[in-house]
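Study this protein:
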Amino acid sequence: MTHQYDFLVIGSGIAGLSYATKLARHFESNGEPVSIAVITKVQADETNTKYAQGGIAAVWSKEDSFDKHIDDTIDAGDGVNKRHIVEIVVREAPERIQELIDYGTRFDRHGNEYDLAREGGHSDHRILHFKDITGAEIERALLEEVQRHPSISIFTHFFAVDLITQHHLGETVYRYREDIRCFGAYVLNTRTGQVEKFLAKTTMLATGGIGNIYQSTTNPTIATGDGIAMAYRAKGICDNLEFIQFHPTSLYQPGKKPSFLISEAVRGFGGILKNADGSTFMENYDPRLSLAPRDITARAIDSEMKRNGTDHVYLDVRDADYDRFLEHFPNITQHCLDIGIDVRRDMIPVVPAQHYLCGGIRVNEWGQTNIHFLYAAGECSCTGLHGANRLASNSLLEAVVFGHRAYLGTIENLKDAYIPDNVPDWDDSGTTHPEEQVLVTEMTRELNSIMSNYVGIVRTNRRLRRAYERVELLYREHEQLYRESKVSVPISELRNMINVSYLVIKMAMSRRENVGLHYNLDNIKA
């Protein structure tokens, strides 16, 4: 089956939905016909956005300033950030957030004023939030806004397999060819098992993160690096994948996936990191104590666990005003109660877990990739905002700012877009349904083990080499299985996770200095 649209959006989180909404409002307000397809591999609200707890950062009070937010972002990013991108995002933040409010997002207030929280790495209170489920509230408001636009069609349970470029027209496409074009994607209808063509003048990748290449992650199970892997296979350029952010405080529940996040805002509210004996330790690592940026805090916790031979540390909120804590963090409070932790008398056991990717598909200030008519926004992209470590609550901000900027770039370049009439259908002749799903399951477990043990918070050259060699073997085994098999979601997700893991390892091996989230013990010796 062939679908043809003006615009194809792959992903239904804040980046994809804000982009689709802007396009719809633009053409509908001008009375111009337009068709926009949004595809998502499960239900529309199952996104990384939905799981974001803390909030969205912006200069909102008179006491704060753009310069302070810019400096905080660059300080957290260890100076690897692109300063002009940081300035763009910070200065455009209030207008973009006002649009979210206009769509119906209900940020918490005290009277007539918004309740601005403070999180690790921030020098002021600038986090707008809705209790401790900010991402879910933004997702709700955006989905309701999308449903007001008849020009937007949402396809749930559709899994993007590969981007369509000149490669599929019989041409040779190499990574630094300057005229690569994207014409849409081959997409698996998971209800029918058939791969369908989605042709479009412009395609947006808004596919979120890569968390499930690791054993422990706060990301939902859908976060398998699909957009990054598809772009890379289509000869897109990727940057900074060595910068994997491990959130310092996920709830310690061995074997549970995804890990439950104890928001950064809990430490901003007064939560203090402690060892089992009640002793504090952050004073040994950073003068900002429990409000240090995530890379420093995660390494400090990792160091304390290794030093003490423990599986976790604790976050102590027992001295906090419980009524106010419950008001701010009802979801966290209830989740802890459900497993027998009463935050009024018990410390919360926490451990670092993979949380965010600071790199991704390289884009310019308009969200454009090196492939013409292919845009990327949100966690799958690398804008240069985060540098070597993301500042808390800058992720939702980046997504909504670049959703808007990608919309502007799309409109500017649309006159040159076209869809060729000779794109072939998906060809899976000679393939069969794999009889042994256990192969995919076991390869996924092995990949998770490799990445967690060798490419985690602290790395060494030997660990990275071992990871590279083992992922190379997995790649060869999987490629043979993939070529022989009908496309399925598990086999395709594993393909993407192997591709992305390879990029993470290669870029970590190439990074010769310790900066931000990349910490290699052998770089210290050098």
